[in-house]
Amino acid sequence: MKWRIHPEGRPLALGAALAATALAGLGFKRAAQGAALASLAAAYFFRDPERQPPWAQAAVVSPADGEVIVVRQEPEPLWVGGPAWRIGIFMSIFDVHINRAPIAAQVMHIRHQPGEFVPANRADALARNERRAYCLQREDGQRALVIQVAGLVARRTVPLVQPGETVTRGQRLGLIRFGSRVEVFLPAAARPLVAQGHRVRAGETPIAWWA
Questions:
Q1: Is the whole-model pTM more than 0.70?
Q2: Which one of the listed residues 39, 62, 92, 180 is annotated catalytic?
Q3: Band of the pLDDT at 44, cuts 50, 70, 90?
Q4: Where are the alpha helices (DSSP H) in 103-177?
Q5: Helices 29-45 & 10-25, crossing angle to 10 degrees?
Q6: Is 33 in the same domain as 64?
Q7: What's the distance, CA 8 to chain centroid?
């Protein structure tokens, strides 16, 4: 699999690598080994593999790598407008943390909401934690919502798009630094294709069918 290090992680990986080189030159072998491991860990965490969405345009792809922890209907009156399918995905520190657009759409709004940093796998994390929401609108006017939720370790969400941009399915939408979760809200007309406990891959795994 071909992948790169995302620009957000390059300073960390490069800085640790340079520190390892300097420490080794000064004779601090163990410290140099620790810095080298830190460089490799940063490169691994910020890996940014290429992904290929499925051919069917009605297939909503996962916005994140990780484990599905929520699939249920609930109201989303703000942007989706009415009953919606909520699909929540928990990302461990070992998952790829690049988040991707689940549908082809225009980015209508991006809203950052300050909050707490309780563990991201808790049921109340979406309501309590710091988060960043992306309102996505299809050509037919229907809307979906993607929410990056910070966690106990993940305390920074990074947008990679701006309001007004048009995104394709699987396009990089943002990233979260260290373990956290991503929530998707889809209109009730969508049909979920995943269940709690399923493992998914951002930009590739169909999580719903929305014709």
A1: yes
A2: 180
A3: low
A4: 125-128
A5: 170
A6: no
A7: 14
